[in-house]
Design goal:
Blueprint (H helix, E strand, L loop, with lengths): L5 H24 L5 H31 L12 H4 L3 H7 L10 H7 L6 H15 L6 H4 L17 H16 L14 H16 L2 H6 L3 H11 L9 E3 L9 H7 L8 E5 L2 H13 L7 E5 L14 E6 L34 H10 L1 E11 L8 H12 L3 E6 L13 E6 L6 E6 L5 E3 L2 E3 L2 H13 L7 E5 H6 L6 H4 L11 H30 L1
Parallel strand pairs: 1-2, 1-4, 2-3, 4-5, 6-8
Antiparallel strand pairs: 5-7, 6-7, 8-11, 9-10
Length: 526
Amino acid sequence: RRPLKMADNRKEQERAELHRAIWNIANDLRGSVDGWDFKQYVLGMLFYRYISENLTVYLNKRMADAGFSGFDYANMPDEKAETARREMVSTKGFFILPSELFANVCRNAVQDDNLNETLEKTFKHIEESASGSESEDNFKGLFDDMDVNSKKLGDTVAKRNEKLVKLLQGVQGMNLGSNYQDNTIDAFGDAYEFLMGMYASNAGKSGGEYYTPQEVSELLARITTVGKTTVNKVYDPACGSGSPLPKFAKILGTENVRDGFFGQEINITTYNLCRINMFLHDVGYDKFDIALGDTLTDPQHWDDEPFQAIVSNPPYSIKWAGEDNPVLINDPRFAPAGVLAPKSKADLAFILHALSWLSADGTAAIVCFPGVMYRGGKEGKIRKYLIDNNYMDCVIQLPDNLFFGTTIATCIMVLKKGKKDNTVLFIDASAECVKATNSNKLTDANTGKILDAFISRKDEKHFARVVPGAEIEAQGYNLSVSTYVEQEDKREVIDIRQLNRQIEEIVAREAVLRAEIDKIIAEIES
């Protein structure tokens, strides 16, 4: 392994320090509030600090550039600050009065006997600042899951405020830099990802449903951007708490996702988390559109498709309306396949939805439950449609135990519309991982090996194989990687002759030992 450079060391030290601070908050507030619920409070407060500092840094820089050295928006009287409201809502999408900034509320928190009311009003004012503007939908309800009057925080107002003070001080104590933009890590985004991973890993199934591990999210994004330095739009039809989408900002740069980030989520709690996640990864309100609703029966982005990059980790084998809804068979997303996904298994409905909204030069990478690769019936007919029409580009077998809440070895299905030949690349990456506590994890080396195979599109014994469509048809349109990539037999080869010689030596040695033991016993008895 190469030694870490100084910048790498600093980066890891900052990240470790940040993670310790988050653990300390969790320990201080552990007890009455369940961990998976309590993340709402930590993430909500983190978001509150982020937008407060974001606005303050922006205004301070504006004033410094105009020649007003030493200006600090946090110290400005509310009455004078009001003059900036309209411009800030237009530019930033929101506005916060100086007295309601995170730093000022935190400074006065210990002496504020009505802290819960102060925070409730502040959150309401922030959301209302966007009312009637283009950013209204991006801010509406963002603090709904952060109930500062919940009895989960304490039986009395005093006890609740005591918890809120600890929460404010804990988030304030996070080393996110005097100017978050100067940090060597994406501090707010990293804090979000660590919190989600920490709580999801302890929350069982509920965590796994809403959160895709960062390394998997990055692999999906990198697959869809191979050969591209810019894309028009990126989309996640089941975005959950928003793990994959911000990876495009990291890989390409926010400015190179020209027309923005789009997603839809059915669960209101994770819908709120996804919007917060976009802000914490420094994606401006005018660059993302996250919608609430059922993607399969009520898609919200008809006017925005097609998308050049689509990534998703949709829920595995959930129920949906299917054939019970007579309109769906004529839906342009599903009609071309001639059959709807089974009512009890919506997996391939998400696949067909993604394919329909994919641009002619785009790529979709979707995490799939392994059963969709081989189950018959309607799912078999949909796979036949995908192969016969040359939409299937690649299937990647992932290791087991990668995702929170399930040990299942999932797959990635890669779709394209502009393929030149009717072949499918199969990659067996089931061994590409390292053990991390109670789960497996993809390292940069693992991800690099998978991407290299995806890009080179060459046969590699026991790892990758390019398979003609005719062979897949002959296999009944089975898309299981193990059908086409032979696994390496790692069992130890045994030399029977050598084994027999060793056995003979053991038997002979045993005879000698028995004779010596008998001799000793005879001497004792005599």
